Amino acid sequence: MPKAQDTILEVDLKALKHNFEYITSKTQKSTKILAVVKAFAYGNDANTIANYLQDLKVDYFAVAYVSEGVALRDAGITTPILVLHPQASNLKTLIERCLEPSLYNAKILNEFIAVASERKQTNYPVHIKFNTGLNRLGFRNDEIDYIISKLEKTDAITAKSIFSHLAASEDLSEKEFTLQQIESFKGIAEEFSKRIGYQPMLHICNTSGILNYPEAHLDMVRTGIGLYGFGNSEKENKNLKPIATLKSVISQIHQIEKGETVGYNRAYKSESFTKTATIPIGHADGIGRIYGNGKGFVFINNKPAAIIGNVCMDMIMVDVTDINCSEGDEVIIFGKHPHSASEFSKAAGTISYEIITSISARVKRVFLT
Ligand SMILES: *Cc1c(COP(=O)(O)O)cnc(C)c1O
Questions:
Q1: Same structural domain, 145 and 222
Q2: pLDDT tens digit string along 3-49?
Q3: pLDDT in tens, 105-123
Q4: What is the pLDDT of residues 277-333, one digit of tens each?
Q5: pTM of the model
Q6: Least CB-packed of 114, 238, 320, 359 within 10 Å?
Q7: Cβ-proximal residues to 173 (8 Å cutoff; 6+ apart), any chain
Q8: What whole-number distance in Å separates Cα of residue 340 and Cα of residue 356?
Q9: Domain enclosing residue 215, as ranges
């Protein structure tokens, strides 16, 4: 039985390399790879992940916010960085740190042109985002005229790429809708390029788009979850390796008699003799209360142990009645398939994306190289 010291998120950089190479192998040589490292690289520590991928010669990075791009520049990242969701208040900083904005509506387009002009920029690279059905961010296709008229009036910015985002690329029952998004984007791209007189890069695929729609890879693909080891399908999960293992340790074991209760609000009532283990990880670490009361499982000695009672801020209690274990033994909350974050999160009716990005800063990241 492996022993453990503390709660850690162990991040396997070799697995990251494997995933990067697997995704690259799915694309043409000429297709650029953009690594999405928003939200601390999905909880894995963006600085380390981005530096590692930069050494592997990734073409581009994307983050959600300007502050995330600034942190990457501070960490030595010189690769181009697309900021997916910049706000007007930090466009100056964006330019100072050579970050490239996604411009998704007239307001941010005009604000960016104003800031770039004021700072005497010429041909500053921007990425024009079109909405093809997700209805989250992006210009409508009937706004092409408007965008072109603005671009023609200024030499401060240049459209380095135009892009869109798929709403349901992982869901093959929505294939018709996805194909319609792809067609709609290709139409927009054609009209835009014809009108502007040059050819911006085109991109629409996220990880599941890359895996399910090879005809839509275009000039660049944007991969997030795939790099971290999840393919959004059983088939693709077999080809990818989750890079993060959330580990902890048994702090204490209790023998609970029938009728006793466990945890706050006495939420668990023992119906017979029960052995419980207390583990130093709680909702402040990202294991939400939704995982309590029998929903979530951790693994001890390769056996599932249900989380019983309410999840506390700093601890959970699990049922180890049928598991041979002792204080100091290692606990795996999630790790490789089939005990991955994807399976763990299913218990709470959520997805890998949510649980891996929820593991809080208090959990130390340890890198395996
Ligand atoms: C987050 C995000 C991605 C990455 O999606 P994955 O499913 O994690 O590959 C790609 N593009 C945009 C616009 C995003 O917001």
A1: yes
A2: 988 999 999 999 999 999 999 999 999 999 999 999 999 999 999 99
A3: 999 999 999 999 999 999 9
A4: 999 999 999 999 999 999 999 999 999 999 999 999 999 999 999 999 999 999 999
A5: 0.97
A6: 238
A7: none
A8: 10
A9: 31-228
Cβ burial 252-275 (10 Å sphere, 16+ → b, else e): eeeebeeeeebbeeebbebeeebb
Q: Assess if residue 24 is contained within a domain.
A: no
Helices (runs of H) and strands (runs of E) counted in the chain: 12, 19
Instruction: Say how many domains are in the chain.
Output: 2
Within a domain: 20? no
Name the residue of 20, 83, 206 to mutate for ligand 1: max ligand atoms within 8 A of Cβ.
206
Atom of ligand 1 nearest to the CA of 222: 10
Q: How far, in Å, from the CA of 206 to the mean position of ligand 1?
A: 5
84 Cβ below 6 A of ligand 1? yes
Beta bridge partners of 364: 8
Name the residue with the closest Cα to ligand 1, atom 4: 224
Q: Which of 38, 129, 241, 247 is catalytic?
A: 38
Q: Choose one of 228, 254, 277: the last residue of a domain.
A: 228
* Residue 200 and residue 152 in one domain: yes
Please report, for the domain that includes residue 206, its CATH number: 3.20.20.10
Q: Does 36 sit in the ligand 1 pocket, CB within 6 Å?
A: yes
CA 226–ligand 1 middle distance (angstroms) = 10
